[in-house]
Amino acid sequence: MSGSRSRSGRGGSGGRGPRKPVVPGRSSTPWGLIGGVLAIVLIAVLVFGGVFLSTADQRALQAFAPTAENPDPSTGIAGVEVVEFAGGQHIQAPTQVAYTHSPPMGGAHDFAWAACNGVVYDAPVRSESLVHSLEHGAVWIAYDPARVSGPALDALRARVDGEQYTVLSPFPDLDEPISLQSWGHQLKLSDANDPRIDQFITALRINPNTHPEPGASCDAANGFDQDAPPPFAPPPAPGTPGSEPETGPAPGAAPGAVAPPGS
After folding, report:
1. Across-strand partners of 109?
2. d(CA 187, CA 11)
3. How many Cβ atoms are within 10 Å of 108's Cβ, its own excluded?
4. Are residues 166 and 218 in the same domain?
5. Claim to verify: residue 50 and residue 156 sit in the same structural domain
6. Count of domains in the chain?
């Protein structure tokens, strides 16, 4: 019939093809966020774990702090040698003391003490000056520069640098790589990470029960120049003419010299 029209879908504007299936969207895994959270957790573990270990170490060291019941806890540290010395025995440079211990840990000494408020000396210092620092309550860490360097030396520096009443210096030809001195006390070691180093310092640094002059200063005085200290010289053998015996003169000033207050 003339009025009829074809409804063929081909080319017709009204024809629709089959619909494509809708695929649900896939959410990507937030690896960046997860990594950030894990990093924060790891940092927290390291920080709080380090604090816990540090606190535990501090508690362990408290056993070596002097008390009325235990005035010298160093006697509980393996290897510590204890010798009695009288204080106040002074000499004048260039006289040397014929010390019987190397390094010395007491006996006659210079009027001028070595600065010992956390001082790190890069060169060996006159022993007679450092022994006077011990009389004031300092702990002196000596090391053999031929055998202690790098991380080991850094570990020793960290214990001294800026710490009151401690001093560090090289000392040639030690029989052990490291030697710790307090007045009348000595401990020789081979390892800069030996826990006995901290035990020794805790027990003896400014321990009023173990050194002759509690309250004496560790700041440079009496002409001692911290930046240009008197150099080390090997001690003379006992009995060497012109040397002073380790026991020193009678307590007090040497003839012709006046000891300043707090010396």
Report:
1. 90
2. 104
3. 28
4. yes
5. no
6. 2
138 with 216, same domain: the answer is yes
- Judgement on whether residues 169 and 204 belong to the same structural domain of the protein: yes
| Residue 148 and residue 126 share a domain | yes
Note down the domain range covering 93. Answer: 67-245
CA-closest candidate to residue 94, choices 235, 251, 261, 258: 235
- Report which of 257, 228, 226 is spatially closest to residue 244, judged by C-alpha positions: 257
CA-nearest of 142, 145, 114 to 230 is 114
The tens-digit pLDDT sequence of the chain (263 residues) is 444 444 444 444 555 666 666 555 566 777 878 877 887 877 766 666 555 556 888 889 999 999 999 999 999 999 999 999 999 999 999 999 999 999 999 999 999 999 999 999 999 999 999 999 999 999 999 999 999 999 999 999 999 999 999 999 999 999 999 999 999 999 999 999 999 999 999 999 999 999 999 999 999 999 999 999 999 999 999 999 999 999 854 444 443 333 343 45
The answer to whether residues 56 and 122 belong to one domain is no
pTM metric for this prediction: 0.76
